[in-house]
Design a protein that fits this description.
The protein is an alpha+beta fold. The chain is built from eleven helices and 18 strands. The protein is 33% helix and 21% strand. The longest helix is centred in the middle third of the chain and has 32 residues, at 162-193.
Length: 529
């Protein structure tokens, strides 16, 4: 060996393999972390933990952009983005390992530490054990990166002939392939070991809903208009919108669930199992829910038949009085098992409306992603101030004493649903034939009801649309208006008037801080018949 020779510079193939080794090491780290999290708690996995931190730290404007752009896929997009960034970082660490293996391995361990800190900082973190998946996964990834890249390195350019170098690369690929398969198996085993979701699914399948003492009236025959392009009056569970911050749907076993009601003005603290809750007076109601992130003309709104217990009855059982009767608490804070807090005015819950602790939705137990086993429903309020999913406690307090999750992020503490209407058909940019065109859609003002809907074509006069039959003031109403369409480009606009006589304002405002306002319009081009 020539004593003055310098270390062999990495070949291009070695650099590519090192980057691949970095990505594979990252994949192994995540797979092992998933395996360990499956035995400890699925929510403690590093990607979920880091994703939750990002959700909490994301500026509201960015969050609203994501909802507008990706809708209910925003969580999948976030997780995919995290994985892509991690893959790029892992590839960079693989390249670093060609020069400084200890430093690259330490980098993997550093990212594991970040994942561990994110896991234990979650509001629903139960113990320091939540840090274990990230730390164990990072250790596995660091060891693999150090060992894999070591197969590509030689002390000196004269130490390995070309044939030996090729053999080392083949050895690298064999080890990489075997490790990748093992990691995939580990990840699958980890998901299978995560028993929380499975037990929740099993307990949901075994749950038998009680018959309501106060059933909902049958939906009036005229509530569903026979107009092609208009959606169903009752939104199927699979199509009901979902907007929340949970990257992993909490798996709550109904048999172990309890609800605690406590706080200011509570004379008798309550702790109820699901069986005890369902043994109360059960009611069934049709109620329309709307998300505050719903833009004018948006689809983050749905109508369902809910089964549950009146929350006001439970609060009075606990000795709670609303502020109008001298009660000390004006806010109830509902807490979810994942740490989410939702603040709701006590007066609204106890003013006679059908505010529910719901355990049934459209004739079946709540779906897991809609809050199983129990969620809150308050007619007339946006979901972020009323519709706590996976609820586990209700604390009575005041708005001055406590800000729920969304308030420090720029949203209003109180937010009744604003009167809105939407054109469902014809769709924007549609090209209907000249002649009679049915303009139809829905309008909603929960707890106030819809009294009138009007349609305007271009700058013409407002014309009254025909309303579908009203189910209740807590549900939306469908509407339809026949239009004698002339060829050309036209703008169709709709406005609704609620049961108090208030008509939708023309001026558009953003969804922040308490819901969008404005009138929905679509542009269509009518073609010759």
């Amino acid at each position: 060996m020539n004593a003055t020779s310098s270390p062999r510079p990495p070949a291009r193939t070695d650099r590519l393999l090192a980057a691949l080794g970095g990505v594979l090491s990252g994949y192994v780290a995540l797979a092992v972390a998933d395996l360990v999290a499956g035995w400890i708690r699925p929510e403690a996995g590093p990607v979920t933990a880091v994703g939750d931190v990002l959700v909490d730290r994301t500026p509201t404007a960015v969050e609203q952009w994501a909802i507008r752009t990706f809708g209910e896929s925003d969580k999948a997009v976030l997780l995919l983005g995290i994985l892509l960034v991690l893959a790029l970082i892992a590839a960079a660490l693989g390249l670093l390992a060609l020069r400084r293996r200890p430093a690259a391995a330490a980098g993997v361990l550093g990212f594991g530490l970040l994942g561990a800190l994110a896991a234990v900082s979650r509001p629903d973190s139960e113990s320091a054990l939540d840090a274990v998946p990230s730390l164990v996964g990072a250790a596995a990834g660091a060891v693999l990166l150090y060992a894999l890249v070591g197969r590509l390195l030689a002390p000196d350019s004269g130490d390995l002939p070309d044939g030996a170098a090729r053999a080392d690369r083949r050895s690298f690929l064999v080890v990489a392939a075997a490790t990748g398969l093992a990691a995939t198996a580990a990840a699958a085993l980890g998901r299978a070991a995560g028993s929380a979701g499975e037990s929740a699914t099993a307990s949901r399948a075994a749950l038998r809903l009680p018959k309501p003492a106060s059933p909902a009236p049958a939906v009036p025959a005229g509530a569903q208009l026979d107009v092609p392009g208009i959606g169903p009056f009752t939104t199927p569970n699979r199509d009901f919108f979902r907007v929340d911050t949970a990257l992993v749907v909490p798996g709550v076993d109904a048999d172990g669930w309890r609800l605690r009601i406590h706080g200011a003005g509570v004379r008798r603290e309550l702790s109820l199992t699901l069986h005890e809750l369902m043994s109360r007076t059960v009611v069934e109601r049709d109620i329309t829910l709307a998300c505050v992130s719903n833009e004018v003309g948006g689809d983050l709104v749905g109508n369902a038949r809910w089964l549950g217990v009146r929350l006001a009855d439970l609060l009075r059982e606990a000795g709670v009085r609303p502020p109008s009767e001298g009660g000390p608490a004006d806010q109830l804070v509902a807490r979810s098992v994942d740490g989410m807090t939702i603040g709701t005015p006590v007066e609204d819950v106890m003013d006679g409306r059908d505010a529910l602790l719901a355990f049934g939705m459209n004739g079946e137990p709540l779906p897991l992603d809609h809050g199983f086993p129990v969620r809150m429903i308050v007619p007339g309020l946006y979901g972020y101030v009323s519709a706590c999913k996976w609820i586990e406690s209700i604390e009575l307090t005041t708005f001055d004493a406590y800000d729920a999750y969304w308030v420090p992020r720029g949203w209003a503490a109180r937010a009744p649903v604003k009167t809105q209407s939407r054109i469902d058909t014809p769709r924007a940019l549609a090209r209907p034939r000249a002649g009679t065109v049915m303009i139809a859609g829905v309008a909603w003002a929960p707890h106030r009801g819809i009294a009138r809907v009007e349609v305007r074509v271009d700058d013409g006069p407002w014309e009254v649309a025909r309303l579908g039959a009203e189910d209740s003031q807590d549900t939306w109403r469908q509407w339809v208006h026949p239009w004698q369409a002339a060829p050309g480009r036209h703008t169709l606009t709709v406005r609704a008037t609620d049961g108090t006589g208030a008509t939708q304002p023309e001026a558009r405002t953003d969804t922040m801080p308490d819901g969008a306002t404005g009138r929905h319009s679509v542009v269509v081009t009518v073609e010759e018949s």
